[in-house]
Design a protein that fits this description.
The protein has 316 residues and is of the alpha/beta class. It is built from 9 helices and 13 strands. Bound molecules: nicotinamide-adenine-dinucleotide and uridine-5'-diphosphate.
Length: 316
């Protein structure tokens, strides 16, 4: 099958390109390197079924394919604050361009949305039916309101134009190729631990997240795209195994065997969600999908990759 991955040079997108190639598909990977890295797809460059197109998807797109995965958007809070207007543009204009391309090509479509559309949730865990608690003018709004617009657009292209489109709401995902400098908690803690620097917990560390390993997420993206009869549906994709950020810092110390101290710093943004955990009942029942990689095991693979890129033997 001819597939198109928008944002394919990013952390998740590059793993998705690998999986699609491994399954025998053709892949057109589109990216403008706003937050992605050329290195993430360098190993695919000469593959006969892989093509890279450097393009900003806020410009109109015309590519032929049978399935369009739309993952193009900054994803880390540091990344979307630095690129706030680009984040609004790619999630609005870029998403409509992507939908229009899918309509013209007669392709299936998947929007990579986010757990951030639930904002600072007042319902726990979060099912897809929850409408969320979002500050429309806050520091996260460029991202979470951008994604909410993208979801609305996806539903209208499905309703009005009959595009075979679905939405997945991705919860915190980690793994190799997550840019060590993008400011998210997993790259921050691992690089700090490996360098023997203080591990910076923002706030009291009692806020929670639920971390999914990237291979689990990629299986979920494929299941959501290719399960028949899922047009117009929304799926949470994440690992329901919830932990506090302080517990996570301790686990990173253990896995890296680091002597770094854990220090507390002020919260980066006032609207830091206090708790986040997906209800994945729908993905389990409709897609037959659930995450398989336990946090400690996924962290070991991830730490191995960071060790490699930071220089072997960097100890704490
Ligand atoms: P990432 O920043 O590594 O990847 C995003 C990619 O999109 C980058 O390669 C970037 O250069 C590209 N991009 C951005 N704007 C573009 C534009 N205008 N034109 C072309 N390419 C553009 O982030 P990621 O973690 O891989 O996230 C991928 C997707 O999954 C994003 O849409 C994100 O919102 C969503 N998501 C990720 C997570 C997570 O934990 N990783 C959680 C929730 C949602
Ligand atoms: N965080 C932290 N130290 C860091 C980076 C992040 O304590 O060095 C916290 C952050 O305040 C948030 C959680 O870890 O509560 C997850 O942050 P991340 O930026 O990974 O993504 P978010 O889930 O907030 O979008």
């Amino acid at each position: 099958m001819k597939t198109i991955v928008l944002g394919g040079a990013g952390f998740v997108g590059s793993h998705l390109c690998d999986a699609l190639i491994a399954q025998g598909n053709e892949v057109i990977c589109v990216d403008n390197f706003l937050t992605g890295r050329r290195d993430n797809v360098a190993h695919l460059r000469d593959h006969p079924r892989f093509r890279f197109v450097q393009r900003d998807i806020t410009e109109p797109l015309a590519l032929e394919g049978e399935a369009v995965f739309h993952l193009a958007s900054p994803a880390s809070p540091v990344g979307y604050r630095k690129n706030s207007i680009q984040t609004l543009r790619v999630n609005s204009i870029g998403t409509m361009n992507a939908l229009e391309m899918a309509r013209q090509a007669g392709a299936r479509f998947l929007l990579a949305s986010t757990s951030e559309i639930y904002g600072d949730p007042q319902v726990h865990p979060q099912p897809e039916t929850y409408w969320g608690n979002v500050d429309p003018t806050g520091l996260r709004a460029c991202y979470d309101e951008g994604k909410r617009f993208g979801e609305a657009a996806t539903m209208e292209w499905q309703r009005v134009h009959g595009v075979d489109a679905r939405i997945v709401r991705i919860f915190n995902t980690y793994g190799p190729r997550n840019d060590p400098q993008d400011g998210r908690v997993v790259p921050n803690f691992i690089t700090q631990a490996l360098r023997g620097e203080p591990i910076t917990v923002y706030g009291d560390g009692l806020q929670t997240r639920s971390f999914a390993y990237v291979s689990d997420l990629v299986e979920g993206l494929l299941a959501a795209m290719f399960t028949e009869g899922t047009a117009g549906e929304v799926f949470n994709l994440g690992n329901p195994d919830e932990c506090t950020i302080l517990e996570f810092a301790r686990l990173v110390k253990k896995v890296t065997e680091s002597r770094s101290e854990i220090v507390f710093r002020p919260l980066r943004f006032a609207d830091d969600p206090a708790r986040r955990r997906p209800d994945i009942t729908r993905a389990r029942t409709r897609l037959g999908w659930e995450p398989r990689v336990p946090l400690e095991e996924g962290l070991r693979h991830t730490v191995a990759w960071y060790r490699e890129i930071l220089g072997a033997g960097v100890g704490g």
